[in-house]
Amino acid sequence: QRACVFASGTGSNFDAMMQDKKNAGSIVLLVCDKPGAAVIKKAQDYGIETLVLEPKRYATKQEYEAVIIEKLQFLEADWIFLAGYMRLIGETLLSQYEGRIVNIHPSLLPAFPGKDAVGQAYRSGVSKTGVTVHYVDEGMDTGPIIAQEEINRIPGETEEQLKMRIQAVEHRLYPNVINQLMQNVTEELL
Ligand code: GRF
């Protein structure tokens, strides 16, 4: 099982995947849609190949995703793991990798989809929030849920403190789920 990670930002989740010995060897590519994003340097430091693209250079999303697919097929990637990839996945990738694209989101979906989920939860005053790992469909943070972990709000904590606790959950949960998904498929094949 070979995996590709799509990320646009800091890459702390990418880092957590690479720190997990069971997954690290399966990750063959980082796809990034933001030249200059910190995650690119992280991938280079780990010796992971990077495909850095500028979506605006492509006339359509289909053309943009076709470039990615060509690379994924060349590397024989089985899975796409989104880790802070700030772009909706289009039909071209979805049809090619049906049931093989997974995302992590910093809330208990379906609550607080989209941007700034931690801030949305913080301001709303909910007593619990958390992290969701889910399959990707055409919507924004809408696909079938694979795993969720709740955390209780601590009275008086700042948004930044809540964010740090959410990130700590993400960094543990995502590598574990990825490991299980890849392991299950490998067992099915045996
Ligand atoms: C994470 O909170 C993830 O849940 C969301 O985007 C953020 C990415 O952070 N989809 P990082 O780049 O992995 O630090």
Automatic annotation (TrEMBL):
Its UniProt entry gives the catalysed reaction(s) as: N(1)-(5-phospho-beta-D-ribosyl)glycinamide + (6R)-10-formyltetrahydrofolate = N(2)-formyl-N(1)-(5-phospho-beta-D-ribosyl)glycinamide + (6S)-5,6,7,8-tetrahydrofolate + H(+)
Name assigned to this protein: Phosphoribosylglycinamide formyltransferase
Q: List residue numbers at the site (Raises pKa of active site His).
A: D141
SUPFAM superfamilies (alphabetical): Formyltransferase
Q: Which organism is it from?
A: Oceanobacillus locisalsi
Q: Which gene carries the instructions for this protein?
A: purN
Q: Which residues participate in (6R)-10-formyltetrahydrofolate binding?
A: K61, M86, R87, L88, I89, N103
Function comment: Catalyzes the transfer of a formyl group from 10-formyltetrahydrofolate to 5-phospho-ribosyl-glycinamide (GAR), producing 5-phospho-ribosyl-N-formylglycinamide (FGAR) and tetrahydrofolate.
The answer to whether keyword Transferase applies is yes
Which residues constitute the catalytic centre? Answer: H105 (proton donor)
Which InterPro entries does the UniProt entry name for this protein?
Formyl_transf_N (IPR002376), Formyl_transf_N_sf (IPR036477), GART (IPR004607)
**Pathway involvement?**
Purine metabolism; IMP biosynthesis via de novo pathway; N(2)-formyl-N(1)-(5-phospho-D-ribosyl)glycinamide from N(1)-(5-phospho-D-ribosyl)glycinamide (10-formyl THF route): step 1/1
